[in-house]
Amino acid sequence: MQSTSVRIDVATHEELKRLAAELGESVGGTVALAVRRLRQDRIGEELARPVESHESSWLDADLR
């Protein structure tokens, strides 16, 4: 697996290490989980937005 470095402040790094230990994960695995959760949250927010008129007509279309 290729890797790269990301600069974060010391306090964030310490919190990341604590979370990783609590989860039984590596620091990198914990970052991956956090990124996945953030992506899922954003998808949820998008799905919770009201349907726009052009979307509504498409969703109501008769597909037969």
Provide structural commentary.
By secondary structure, the protein is mainly alpha-helical. The chain is built from three helices and no strands. Helix 1 crosses helix 2. The longest helix has 22 residues, at 27-48. It is elongated and about 55 Å long.
Q: What can be said about this structure in brief?
A:
The protein is mostly helical.
| Major beta sheet summary | none
Q: Count the beta strands.
A: 0
Strand content: under 5%
**What best-fitting shape do the alpha-carbon axes yield?**
elongated
**What percentage of residues falls in helices of 4 or more residues?**
55-70%
Radius of gyration, Cα only, in angstroms? 19 Å
- Enumerate how many helices there are, as a single number: 3
SSE sequence, one letter per element: HHH
**Cα separation of the termini:** 47 Å
Q: What is the mean pLDDT? A: 92
What class, by secondary structure content?
A: mainly alpha
Which stretches are poorly predicted, pLDDT < 50 over at least 5 residues?
none
Key structural traits:
mainly alpha; 67% helix; elongated
SSE layout and pairings?
Layout lengths: L9 H14 L3 H22 L4 H7 L5
Helix pairs in contact: 1-2
